[in-house]
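Notebook entry, structure prediction.
Reason for the run: the old model in the group folder had no record of what sequence produced it. Starting over properly, with the input documented here first.
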Amino acid sequence: MARPRTPISATPRAQRFQELKSGLDQLEYFCKGTVLKRMMKCGKTGCACHTDPDKRHGPYFELTYKANGKTVNVKLSPEAAPLYRAASLQYRKLKTLLGRLEKLSQIILRNQAKQAQSQQPD
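New structure, fully documented this time:
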């Protein structure tokens, strides 16, 4: 005799899935990549930036990310850099959240498949 089926939404894993899913609503704008702050040497051979790292020019900001197997660098203004830095952190949160949702989904789906199999008449 088959045991009574527990509603999926009542299981602790399903509740956890819903909690994680609600985290998607809390995300702000996001973008893939890393914001870098660079201090650069110039092209003038007599400039102090070539001999003293403390006298390099900058800071210059770049967003770096991969697209189609290639590294892409986008120059950013000093005002835009914090916006993109926050957006890249949001992207990392999104990836982490999606990874957790996927793992939990796989567990729930495996359990649902086992439960469906056990309810089939022999």
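Summary: The mean pLDDT is 90.
The old model has been moved to the deprecated folder.
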